């Protein structure tokens, strides 16, 4: 890893930049995050020798590295132009962007990356791999932020959902956006304590799940009294409920893993579906972000 001489920050916003239009949108989002949070911004670029090691050409490697340096410098210049008051650092890594971003570790307040359009994300995409492994919130930017925005947060009573509410309310407060907490409870894994008998009594299901939703949101309403927040209990599968809600949102926030059982290095089904299909920017939050 090669970084500039100012890299000793304990908390900062991190963004991956590779010169594409997707990464430029991510950079613009990250600059605004850093400005609103009053944090430094670190712009990262990972360069990589594109041929097998048997074709290693040291002069060619030097050229590829310099190209990476120029790409990174361009991103840094754009960031400073967008927000002159934000301190901007740079980090040049060798290897793939996935390792570069995941290895940011606890120094990062959050990680921001660009994304392909919905339904066009390739298998093995960095935008899928980083949220599954990072121990920081990851914002996957899919579209430019609207001035009058709305944050949609997925709620299911899990620790991951509580972490998502924390970030969702924080973003809404920082940006002056509205917030909608959505609980899609029509799925066995979404029932509190796995009580499948609730699905035979719709009124009881509404009452029990509605109580879970209101209890989850209540402390955040107290902490962020200026945020205009609403709750929606929907008798739909969580993925369907959140994808529908994301149609009218600027940002959708979910925990990396919800109430269901998933492998520790794998995204939950709902967060995976949002990353692949939601039309808006998506934030994936691990259970422990402190």
Q: Mind telling me the CATH superfamily name of the largest domain?
A: HUPs
| Count of discrete alpha- or pi-helical segments spanning 4 or more residues | 8
Question: Going across the major beta sheet, what is the strand order?
Answer: 1-4-3-2-5-6-11-10-7-8-9
What structural class results from the helix and strand content? alpha/beta
Second rung of CATH, namely the architecture of the largest domain: 3-Layer(aba) Sandwich
Shape descriptor reads elongated
CATH-assigned fold name of the largest domain: Rossmann fold
How big a fraction of the residues is strand?
15-25%
Percent range of helical residues:
25-40%
Order of helices and strands: EEHEHEHEHEEHEHEHEHE
How many angstroms separate the termini?
25 Å
Stretches with pLDDT under 50, minimum 5 residues: 260-264
Largest sheet: 11 strands, mixed
Number of domains: 2
Annotation, overall tally of beta strands: 11
Radius of gyration: 20 Å
- What CATH first level of the largest domain would be assigned? Alpha Beta
């Amino acid at each position: 890893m090669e970084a500039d001489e100012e890299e000793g920050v304990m908390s900062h916003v991190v963004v991956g930049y590779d010169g594409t239009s997707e990464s430029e949108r991510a950079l613009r989002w990250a600059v605004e995050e850093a400005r609103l949070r009053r944090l430094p911004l670190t712009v990262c670029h990972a360069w990589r020798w594109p041929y097998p090691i048997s074709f290693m050409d040291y002069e060619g490697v030097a050229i590829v590295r310099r190209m990476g340096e120029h790409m990174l410098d361009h991103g840094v210049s754009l960031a400073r132009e967008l927000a002159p008051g934000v301190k901007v650092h740079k980090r040049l890594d060798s290897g793939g962007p996935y390792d570069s971003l995941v290895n940011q570790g606890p120094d990062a307040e959050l990680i921001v990356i660009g994304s392909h359009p919905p339904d066009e994300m390739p298998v093995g995409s960095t935008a899928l791999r980083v949220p599954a492994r990072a121990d920081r919130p990851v914002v996957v930017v899919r579209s430019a932020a609207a001035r009058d925005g709305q944050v949609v947060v997925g709620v299911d009573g899990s620790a991951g959902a509580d972490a998502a509410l924390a970030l969702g309310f924080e973003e809404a407060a920082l940006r002056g956006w509205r917030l909608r907490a959505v609980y899609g409870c029509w799925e066995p894994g979404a029932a509190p304590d796995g009580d499948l008998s609730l699905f035979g009594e719709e009124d009881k299901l509404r009452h029990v799940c509605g109580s879970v939703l209101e209890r989850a949101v209540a402390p955040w309403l107290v902490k962020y009294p200026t945020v205009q927040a609403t709750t929606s209990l929907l008798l739909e599968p969580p993925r369907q409920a959140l994808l529908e809600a994301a149609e009218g949102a600027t940002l959708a926030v979910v925990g990396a893993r919800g109430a269901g059982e998933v492998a520790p290095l794998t995204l939950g089904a709902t967060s995976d579906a949002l990353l692949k299909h939601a039309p808006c920017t998506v934030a994936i939050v691990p259970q422990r972000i402190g």
